[in-house]
Amino acid sequence: MACANCGNKENGLPKGCKNNGNCGNNGCDKLTVFNWLANVSDTNGNSTYPAVEVRFKNGRKEFFKFDPNQLSLYEGEAIVVEATTGYDIGIVSLSGELVRLQIQKKHLIQQTDDLKSVLRKATEEDLEKWHNGRAKESSSMVKSRELASELGLKMKISDVEFQADQSKVIFYYTAEERVDFRELIRKLADSFKTRIEMKQIGMRQEAGRLGGIGSCGRELCCSTWLTDFRSVSTSAARYQQLSLNPSKLAGQCGKLKCCLNYELDLYVEELKEFPDTKFKLKTEKGNAFFQKMDIFKKRMWYSYADEPNEFIEMSLEQVKSVIEENKKGKKPLALRSEAAEPVAEVETYANVVGQDSLNRFDKPKGKGKKRRKKKFSGNRSKKNKA
């Protein structure tokens, strides 16, 4: 989504705020939240909660405290906040009662006194210095990758973030093994003349920071709304009767797709009604073993050991009845497939209006016969002259 500030420039090309914090309604940022409790007071009757959620680059969010009597903050404003060294600038992404609920959800309610403070609202000078630091990030990432390649470090630097006062630069990297980057930090400090911080992130966090389009055609969940990364196992694919194809089950991060967990609980609940697939159906014709199932249509397919290629479709009730007979020591003659539902006859209406057929142009036209000129006999020509 784009706000009114993301207008068009010359030649009709989109301008956009380029994630510089100029978005008026915070609508085209990552991990946006709709504050549905914006006009609701808290439990103590206060209309403003003394803490706000602040968004930084690529969805990084933190909570900061402030004094509502001295400062009034609104969503979408650029503010100057306290940092470990110096200060930083972020965008207010959430305020009010919903901030308290988010803090309580993340189990930080006991640490509200330890939150860093909001210093002031950002001025033009602060924003200009902040934008200058943002402009250096792409070139800094290229330089850091060159240095890491020269040192032979097996790591991938995926993102760079300058602090607003440019007193610190954070380099985000991914690595499969432990990396000794002490020499890299020294060279980076000599190049940028500032404090360097290396922060390792996982493959999923990297995909969330960089963004992209998934196989479903939509933006990645981790870069739009997903904030927690739960572990995904191959059992989630087995429960949903999916083929264990790594190329289809893996996302852009190289790990199993997070969406495999979305419907897993529903599948597990439905599978409780089905019998154990290892149980063989015993009949007079022979033993039949399980082949596949359709969970939501409640269908199961079995085949005899002598005829493994011939699938017999049965309903869940039929399978349960055969299992009950087997437990009693009885064997049916053979498994019978559930009869197909009769096809309803569609009533045809006569063409009483006289419309032409819709497929009249589909049939190829036949070759037209050439008309032959009739030859008149001589007697007939003489009569005409007379």
- Which strand order does the major sheet show? 1-2-5-3-4
Unreliable stretches? 1-5, 10-14, 19-27, 339-343
Element string (H = helix, E = strand): EEEEHEHHEEHEHHHHHEEEEHH
Percent of residues in beta strands?
A: 15-25%
Distance between the termini: 93 Å
Taken together, the total number of domains comes to: 4
What is the count of β-strands? 12
Percent helix: 10-25%
Average pLDDT reading = 81
Largest sheet properties: 5 strands, mixed, barrel
Shape: elongated
Structural class: alpha+beta
Q: Determine the number of helices (DSSP H or I, runs of at least 4 residues).
A: 11
Give me the Rg, rounded. 36 Å
Explain what you see.
The protein has 386 residues and is an alpha+beta fold. It has 4 domains: 10-122, no CATH class; 132-201, GMP Synthetase, Chain A, domain 3, CATH 3.30.300.20; 208-270, no CATH class; 281-327, no CATH class. It is built from 11 helices and 12 strands. It has helices at residues 97-105, 124-135, 137-150, 182-192, 203-210, 221-224, 234-239, 246-249, 264-271, 316-327, 378-385; strands at 51-55, 61-65, 78-82, 87-95, 116-121, 156-162, 168-174, 195-200, 281-282, 287-294, 299-304, 312-315. The strands form 3 sheets. The chain has a 5-stranded mixed beta barrel with strand order 1-2-5-3-4. A hairpin with a 4-residue loop joins strand 10 (287-294) and strand 11. The model is unreliable at 1-5, 10-14, 19-27 and 339-343 (pLDDT under 50).
